[in-house]
Automatic annotation (TrEMBL):
Species name: Caldimonas thermodepolymerans
PANTHER family in UniProt: 5-METHYLTETRAHYDROPTEROYLTRIGLUTAMATE--HOMOCYSTEINE METHYLTRANSFERASE
Details of cofactor binding: Binds 1 zinc ion per subunit.
Cofactors demanded by this protein: Zn(2+)
This protein's name: 5-methyltetrahydropteroyltriglutamate--homocysteine methyltransferase
Record-stated family: Belongs to the vitamin-B12 independent methionine synthase family.
Domain Cobalamin-independent methionine synthase MetE C-terminal/archaeal: 427-748
Keywords assigned: Amino-acid biosynthesis, Metal-binding, Methionine biosynthesis, Methyltransferase, Repeat, Transferase, Zinc
HAMAP family named in the record: Meth_synth
Domain of life per record: Bacteria
GO MF annotation, one: 5-methyltetrahydropteroyltriglutamate-homocysteine S-methyltransferase activity
Residues that hold Zn(2+) according to the record: H642, C644, E666, C727
Domain Cobalamin-independent methionine synthase MetE N-terminal stretches: 4-310
Length: 765
């Protein structure tokens, strides 16, 4: 029977046990031993589930208390120099110090894991550093798994992907560190061989990218160097895209097998199979690890049969990628619409799918007849569901006109009109939207959800929060206010709750970073907005103040990117449907007297395909979707967008093509470096470069922010500059928020005075 395994399993816990254990440990309510107990229980339960589902190999090494990339850095002794005097021995305290920062040292940078909504911590390396292996924790997990089932396949981040994901703090070439790093990997592989490990999964997702020659060379060097020493067999794992553009590497790298993503890149299964030698195994990722739809088992079998005939025992089956990106189990979803529930497979159900496929290949379809029939019925029910198509939506899509995605006047003219309409000072101050989601807000929402707080009382509680936010902002002297988003559990889930075409799970949590989770909505049908969503709240907030209040929406690309979306139509079409729904909301906000509307697109960059050659096609429809959402307003209505977690250097033409009047971006941690790119590109519209890092509880001083604003004024015409934090403040507390914003407003005031003084000096000269 084909070997069955997973590339990784969710670690947060079906009831988010790890999240709660981490947070109580951080609050000092429990100690690290208690945290470790919860972690060990979770690992055990997850392995038992894999074993009971019938997988042949258990996966170890995928569990982490915070982030697996950070764990690898520490296992290889890559402790950043700046932390050396701050932390002691590598242990849980060190992990948390690097992940969350200390009173003196900011945390490691966090960034997106390929094209997912998972954030990893970026290892900080430097020229000449040595790597020293400390694999005690990793090996302990391997032994724990072996006690559940002897067939354990540990997973390791491959050396080249590890370097690709890291940065050097001194600007030196990361690849120069490869030989030293390989020494540590060799040591680890020898240890694993001594632990009776037969196979190790070495993740090298960088193979899916369009790598340049030095990185390809690095792959060759790395895997040549891993040969020879005593080691288990290596399964090189790739995912999220195809590797059939790298068949030379597939042929050359001396590994014992390959894992490929046959969901995102079905065409590659045959070509990669042909490139293997007669010994190598092929692990086919046939079950979608990035989405929640049940696999059509009949179709999957039809695709697998020729591979099985060709490869026999050398065919392995698995989900396409780690199951980290999907929730634990559909079994918990007792409140989900039963029809939709029937279409879904989360991590546990995907284990069953993999095992069923293997049984069918080995023993014939009769052995799994019932499962195949269920799968057919589920697919038929989805295909024929009458709630999926929506006639109005289809008609509107047919009637789209290019003019709908263009503002009437160019930016320079809009800028004049908006200046007159809004009468804002130079360097206007604002925030990104959310204010602290206090435990009281979350408790009120939980009580409302459980029926303990009625709709009216919930509305009043949220209105009180909006009032508080407006009062705080007026006291602080901000220029453009926000309502604070208290009513939103999440910037994507909230909108999904109010749109047709989405289902919301109850426990479908997925780790976003550390203890933070998101519950991606399930987009199954045509998207339609039955009623305005944010207009009442925006109107309420606006009537509390004379200052402009920004309407606050989530953009179509981010809604798409952070949901589990339908796989029965192109993403582009779904994005346009979302765009139309948001366009209606934008127009309703304008009609309600809201003069500034922000459409957040933090996931705009994340949606880029992994292969750069596929970027233009994506950018084309992503820009169109944003413009369709944003361009249906008068020229004196100001459209803002916000992006964070992003590098924009290489997509600036597309960012400019969005034609938002103002873009607020995350820049404080890179000390405004990003602005150089905006200057070099001659970005035409207004920019709000973030002047403080909202990820840390640290309150930045006036001088610190003033220095950043000075730097920004050197790079961008102050007439086009806004002053704001990097991102929303939902994860912060009120005390630090208040203090930081007071400093920010003061820094803006000082800078305005400086500009005024400079202007009068210039005039005198
Ligand atoms: C901007 N970011 C976002 C991303 N993706 C999104 N979908 N949304 C984002 O905002 N990706 C990039 C970044 C990632 N950043 C973050 C930041 C913070 C969080 C976070 O805080 N997540 C929360 C869950 C948020 C939520 O939905 N809260 C619900 C309630 C959830 C809950 O646990 N309720 C409890 C009861 C509560 C109580 O009694 O006190 C329960 O149901 O048991 C809400 O507010 O109603 C988290 O806790 O992890 C995520 C990503
Ligand atoms: N308006 C959102 C954007 C987050 S990226 C917020 O402020 O939380
Ligand atoms: Zn943001």
């Amino acid at each position: 029977m084909p070997y069955t395994h997973v590339l990784g399993y969710p670690r947060i816990g079906a009831r988010r046990e790890l999240k709660f254990a981490l947070e109580s440990c951080w609050k000092g309510e429990t100690n690290t031993e208690q945290l470790e107990e919860v972690a060990a229980r979770l690992r055990l339960a997850h392995w038992q589930r894999q074993r009971d589902a019938g997988l042949d190999l258990l996966t170890a090494g995928d569990f982490t208390l915070y982030d697996h990339v950070l764990d690898h850095a520490l296992m290889f002794g890559a402790l950043p120099r700046r932390f050396r005097s701050v932390v002691g021995e590598t242990g849980t305290a060190t992990v948390f110090a690097l992940a969350r920062g200390t009173s003196t040292e900011p945390a490691l940078e966090m960034t997106k894991w390929f094209d997912t909504n998972y954030h990893y911590l970026v290892p900080e390396l430097e020229r000449g550093m040595s790597f020293e292996l400390d694999a005690r924790r990793y090996l302990e997990h391997v032994r724990e798994a072996q006690a559940v089932l002897p067939g354990v396949k540990p997973v390791l981040l491959g050396p080249v992907t590890f370097l690709w994901l890291s940065k050097t703090v001194d600007g030196s070439d990361r690849l120069a560190l490869l030989p030293g790093l390989i020494g540590a990997y060799r040591g680890l592989l020898a240890e694993l061989a001594a632990h009776d490990v037969a196979w190790v999964q070495v993740d090298e997702p960088v193979l899916g990218l369009e790598l340049d020659e030095p990185w390809k060379r690095a792959l060759r060097q790395a895997y040549e160097a891993l040969q020879g020493a005593p080691r288990p067999r290596l399964l090189a794992a790739t995912y999220f895209t195809g590797i059939d553009h790298q068949l030379d590497l597939v042929r050359e790298l001396p590994v014992d097998g390959w894992h490929i993503d046959a969901v995102r890149a079905p065409q590659q299964a045959q070509t990669v199979a042909q490139a293997l030698d007669g010994e190598q195994v092929l692990s086919v990722g046939i079950v979608d690890g990035r989405n929640v739809w049940r696999t059509h088992l009949g179709d999957a079998l039809a695709r697998l049969r020729p591979l099985h005939e060709r490869l026999g025992e050398r065919l392995w089956l698995a989900p396409s990628c780690s199951l980290l990106h999907v929730p634990h189990s559909v079994a918990q979803e007792s409140r989900l619409d039963p029809e939709v529930r029937r279409w879904l497979a989360f991590a546990d159900e995907k284990l069953d799918e993999v095992v069923t496929l293997a049984r069918a290949l080995e023993h014939g379809e009769d052995a799994v007849r019932e499962r195949l029939a269920e799968s057919d019925a589920s697919l038929a029910s989805r295909r024929h569901c009458r709630r999926i198509p929506h006639a109005t939506v289809a008609k509107r899509l047919q009637q789209l006109h290019p003019r709908m995605a263009e503002r009437a006047k160019p930016y320079a003219e809009r800028q004049q009109l908006q200046r007159q309409a809004l009468d804002l000072p130079v360097l206007p101050t604002t925030t990104i939207g959310s204010f602290p989601q206090t435990p009281e807000i979350r408790r009120a929402r939980a009580a409302h959800k459980q029926g303990r707080l009625g709709a009216y009382d919930y509305l009043q509680t949220m209105r009180a929060e909006v009032r508080r936010a407006i009062e705080e902002q007026e006291r602080l002297g901000l220029d453009v206010l926000v309502h604070g988003e208290p009513e939103r559990n999440d910037m994507v889930e909230y909108f999904a709750q109010h749109l047709f075409g989405f289902a919301i799970s109850e426990h479908g949590w997925v780790q976003s970073y550390g203890s933070r989770c998101v519950k991606p909505p399930i987009l199954y049908g045509d998207v339609f907005r039955p009623d305005p969503i944010t207009v009442d709240t925006a109107r309420y907030a606006q009537q509390l103040t004379d200052k402009p209040v920004k309407g606050m929406l989530t953009g179509p690309v981010t809604m798409l990117q952070w949901s589990f979306v339908r796989d029965d139509q192109p993403r582009e079409r779904t994005a346009l449907q979302l765009a139309l729904a948001i366009r209606d909301e934008v127009q309703d906000l304008e009609a309600a007297g809201i003069r500034i509307i922000q459409i957040d697109e933090p996931a705009f960059r994340e949606g880029l395909p992994l292969k750069a050659s596929e970027w233009p096609a994506y950018l084309d429809w992503a820009v169109r979707a944003f413009k369709l959402a944003s361009c249906g307003v008068r020229d004196d209505t100001q459209i803002h967008t916000h992006m964070c977690y992003s590098e924009f250097h290489d997509i600036l033409p597309a960012i400019a093509a969005l034609d938002a009047d103002v873009i607020t971006i995350e820049t404080s941690r890179s000390r405004m470096e990003l602005l150089d790119a905006f200057r070099d590109f001659a970005y035409p519209n207004a920019i709000g470069p973030g002047v403080y890092d909202i990820h840390s509880p640290r309150v930045p001083g006036v001088d610190e922010m003033l220095a950043l604003i000075e730097r920004a004024c050197e790079v961008v015409d102050p007439a086009r500059l806004w002053i704001n934090p990097d991102c929303g403040l939902k994860t912060r507390g009120w005390a630090e928020t208040r203090a930081a914003l007071a400093n920010m407003v003061q820094a803006a005031c000082v800078m305005r005075e400086r500009l005024k003084a400079r202007r009068s000096t210039d005039a005198a000269v």
